[in-house]
Specification:
Layout lengths: L7 E8 L3 H4 L6 E7 L2 E7 L4 E9 L2 E8 L3 H8 L7
Antiparallel strand pairs: 1-5, 2-3, 3-4, 4-5
Length: 85
């Protein structure tokens, strides 16, 4: 990546659906890293983005999605995301 490469990080929350169904293991690989003590999954999106997700509670999933950013940058950003269950 160069300094002129546009980068973007988005945060999204999904509520109401069973969290286990949202982070489908067929679409998201397990990561060895945790966010706020919670296991994480990470996947590639068709839009050339990387998406990091973790279960907040049984019906809440948080995502940090990055375009042209490293996984380290996604995890660093996610550490600052506070989601109320």
């Amino acid at each position: 990546m160069t300094e002129s490469t546009p980068q973007r990080i988005n945060v999204s929350i999904i509520r109401g659906a069973p969290a286990a169904n949202v982070l489908d293991p067929n679409a998201y690989a397990e990561s060895s890293r945790k966010i706020h003590g919670k296991p994480t999954r990470i996947g590639d999106r068709p839009t050339n983005e990387r998406q990091l997700g973790w279960v907040v509670d049984a019906s809440t999933v948080a995502f940090v999605t990055g375009y042209q950013v490293t996984d380290d940058a996604l995890f660093a950003f996610a550490e600052n995301v506070e989601v109320q269950p």
